[in-house]
Design brief:
Layout (H helix, E strand, L loop, with lengths): L2 H18 L8 H8 L2 H7 L3 E9 L3 E7 L4 E6 L2 E10 L3 E8 L4 E8 L3 E5 L7 H23 L6 H19 L2 E3 L4 E7 L2
Antiparallel strand pairs: 1-2, 1-9, 3-4, 3-7, 4-5, 5-6, 7-8
């Protein structure tokens, strides 16, 4: 074996040892959690308020969704749909930042909990969430491919296309349900300690 290859192999074998010999800064648990930036982890460090949306379905049972400061929330209040980030939470209200185009800056808008009409949840369900996007597109591709291959749209392709689109809509509604706030589905504010 030529000396060049021996040198190259020796360097490749020593490279991991040299990489692990570098000094690393040791951070405390609090610094690591704060660096991650997750609202759930920040709430563990210091007492704070957060909103809970308790959903009690007849068939599905009880489920609790939590919204911390910094989380995205999609809701309908005062007849308008909002998809914003939670800016601040108090005992009976929460605020979001909305763009003020006249002043060219973001301003907090406060909502009382009893003003919220609906909350739209965005859940990630494996395969179901992806199918909600892919199936309607697959139905459209199937219809276009049938029209290109046959020169016209055949009656046999319409049920298949309809089934793709309908199943995509159903999977989208399962992944992104709209839940009305009422006596069974309550929005409340809790505190961490």
């Amino acid at each position: 074996m030529p000396p060049f290859f021996r040198y190259l192999i020796a360097c490749l074998l020593l490279l991991p040892a040299l990489a692990s010999a570098q000094t690393l800064d040791t951070l405390t648990t609090e610094q690591l959690l704060d660096r991650k930036g997750s609202p759930y982890q920040r709430a563990q460090l210091r007492p704070s308020r957060y909103m809970v949306f308790d959903v009690n379905h007849t068939l599905g049972g009880f489920r609790r969704y939590r919204f911390f400061e910094g989380d995205d929330i999609h809701f309908k209040a005062r007849g308008i749909k909002y998809h914003e980030e939670v800016y601040q939470i108090t005992d009976s209200t929460f605020s979001v930042l909305l763009a003020n185009e006249v002043m060219n800056r973001d301003e907090p808008v406060t909502f009382r909990l009893n003003e919220i009409e609906k909350i739209i949840l965005h859940r990630r369900i494996p395969f179901v969430t992806a199918a909600g996007t892919i199936f309607p597109a697959a139905g459209a591709v199937y219809l276009i491919a049938d029209a290109v291959n046959n020169g016209q749209i055949s009656k046999k392709s319409l049920p298949v296309t309809g089934a793709f689109v309908l199943s995509g809509i159903i999977f989208h509604l399962i992944s992104n349900p709209t839940i009305h706030v009422n006596k069974n589905h309550k929005l409340r504010v809790l505190r961490t300690y």
